[in-house]
Please model this.
Amino acid sequence: MPEYQKVRYTHIDDISAEDLRLAGITVHQPQGLTCVSEDLEGFWKEIGRVVVWADRNRIDVHPYMLLEDHELGYLRGAGWRAWMHRPAGRRPAHWTRRTHRVHGLYYECHISIEASAGDRVVRMIQAARGFRGWQDQQFQRTYDATV
Model:
C-alpha cells in the first residue's frame, strides 16, 4: 500500500512541453478519472501520476481527465522535481517501486493536491452533506412531533 506524505511541488506554467521533452519528461494525454478524498485537513484531489524509469532517461507524467490548467501545472512540477531528484534504492520516500515485465524497474508516485473550495466534486460532496443534514433535521422534527 502506498504511503501518503506531503511534498511541496512547484507549479510550472512557464516551461514549455518541448523543454520538458528535451529533459526526457513526457506529458501524456489525459486518461482516467480524478478522485477526491478527505482527511482532517480538508479535501485532496488526485490529479495524476509520475513514472520514473530506472534504466532509461525517461519520466512519464500521466494526468487524469478534466483537470484545470493550474492543476496540470502542479503535475508538470512533480515531473520536473522527479527529474531533479530521481528516486533510487529499495524504498525511496514518496515513491512505490515496481517492475514492468518488458521495460524493467520503475518508480511510481500518485500526485494529489489540496482541492479548492470551488472544485466541482468538493461542491457536490458538500451539497450532499447539506441535504443529508436537512433530511436528518426533518426526520427529527417529525419524530419529536409524534412522540
Remarks:
- The first helix runs from residue 17 to 22.
- The chain has two domains: 1-115, 117-147.
